[in-house]
């Protein structure tokens, strides 16, 4: 495609000095070298992930069990959201290569049009990633539980039984006896469960008051053991009534740290500690590349719109930006496979 | 830059309207491939992923994923990044050192990971 690179030149002329033996300009060559070094960085991260993954085979979270939510919709949609993100990035890569092609035809309007499309695609991807992070950090309604035998289990259920209200039985600084609290229930509930402030169906609220919890039962619960205890081993599954009872026992234990919701750098509800750290670092590092890519694309698009490259006689700048943008897509293809699929 | 004795660089890579049409056709073709491969990957993940498949089935699916990923990566690098149109020397300079290093790294770290796993499951019960 790049025309002259495929022209036959005998090797004596090619390597005889004065010309680039690769028929590539300095800028393009340097962009390629940068991308090779960046590829090594990402490979290092992904291989480190692979190391940890192989060292902790069974306990590692499964992609389609961890990422199965869509914004604004209830229910189970395994991997659909990530697939959508991948598709957005592929499409923005296509619009970028179309901008490069338009540049080769000296079609200024075409370049600007496709660059704008690429920028929009990049912004959509970043937005999707922000939602994904937010969802990952907040976690599910159930969290991960430490069972009484010391094993750790992740929880799945068809439905989280709705919390109806808290009825205050012992007054605190703020609430009086008989108050019925109907606001911010989920937040209070999870906070109290994680801190061990729920005991025998009673919740100790922020202000020190104690209230009775009115909550519908969870529907169709399943516990999957992710770390060995004295009774249960990794890979065991507990269903139905037994699972629901064990879950309630943990929630109502009044002990600190038996339930973990969502993820941070110290702990997460999906699996081993390193899982969250790798997730934040790898997708974060990639997301930062996308962010820089969008900024670079905006600058180059403005240059193209002002006719800088047209005056120069060639649109190689679009090609170089394009290389970076495609590279970002390339990395995501690997992150998608190794983080979400296998 | 415009010297008689200097053979032009990629800077002057221009093509005509007809060539453009051909190139665009190729781009759309690759888009379809990438999309179809992604859809297949997600469908397999949702219907027969690691939570469902075990043993040899999962091993096959896993290696299938790796193969499909390399197909996607190949199309992106060779067509979208135009590496397929560059000189043989440039291709070698970019790909050979990378692959030598990375294949070694993958081998050594995954092997070590399995060894750590075995050590942990043997001595940390």
How would you characterize this protein structure?
The complex is a heterodimer of chains A (342) and B (125). Chain A folds into two domains: 24-139 and 275-341, Four Helix Bundle (Hemerythrin (Met), subunit A) (Up-down Bundle); 145-262, no CATH class. The model of chain A has no long low-confidence stretch (mean pLDDT 88). In chain A, the strands form two sheets. Chain A has a five-stranded antiparallel sheet with strand order 9-8-2-1-10. Chain A has a five-stranded antiparallel sheet with strand order 4-3-7-6-5. Helices cover 53% and strands 13% of the residues of chain A. By secondary structure, chain A is an alpha+beta fold. Chain B is mostly helical. Chain B folds into two domains: 22-85; 87-125. In chain B, 75% of the residues lie in helices and 0% in strands. Chain B has three helices and no strands. Chain B has helices at residues 17-48, 55-80, 88-123. In chain B, helix 1 runs antiparallel to helix 2 (55-80). The longest helix of chain B is centred in the C-terminal third of the chain and has 36 residues, at 88-123. The radius of gyration of chain B is 22 Å and the shape is flat. The N and C termini of chain B lie far apart (70 Å). Mean pLDDT of chain B is 86; it is low at 1-7. Chains A and B meet through helix 2, helix 3, helix 4 and helix 10 of A and helix 1, helix 2 and helix 3 of B.
